[in-house]
Amino acid sequence: MSLLAMLVAKLRWPRSLGALLFDTCLLDVLVSLALIAAAIKVLLFFDSGAVAFWLLLCFGS
After folding, report:
1. What pLDDT sits at residue 40?
2. Do residues 5 and 14 touch, judged by C-beta distance below 8 A?
3. How far, in Å, CA of 20 to CA of 53, rounded?
4. Is residue 35, in this structure, part of any structural domain at all?
5. Which of 27, 35, 45, 60 makes an SS bond possible with 56, Cβ 3.0 to 4.6 Å?
6. What CA–CA distance (Å, rounded) separates 57 from 52?
7. By residue range, what is the domain housing residue 25?
């Protein structure tokens, strides 16, 4: 394959989203935000009293 054909093929096909996220470090930012959101969800679940209710129901006397 000639160099010109490879250059045209590279310009014609857009880069994948994964490569764009990886090259710009946006993947790290998105993963960090997802972890923070998951931690907040877990904290809100514990704060809602659901775990305390089940522990009291199962082991309460």
Report:
1. 95
2. no
3. 46
4. yes
5. 60
6. 8
7. 17-59
Position 5 in a domain: no
Tokens, residue 7: 């250059």
pLDDT in tens, 4-58: 776 666 666 556 766 766 677 777 888 899 999 999 999 988 888 888 888 888 8
If one counts the domains in the chain, the total is 1
Q: What is the DSSP letter of 15?
A: P
Alpha-carbon distance values, 24 to 16, 27, 40, 56 (Å)? 13, 8, 26, 49
Residue that the structure tokens 């764009």 belong to: 20
> Taking the mean position of all CA atoms in its chain, how far away is CA 28?
8
Q: Residues 3, 8, 13, 28: is their CA dihedral positive or negative?
A: positive
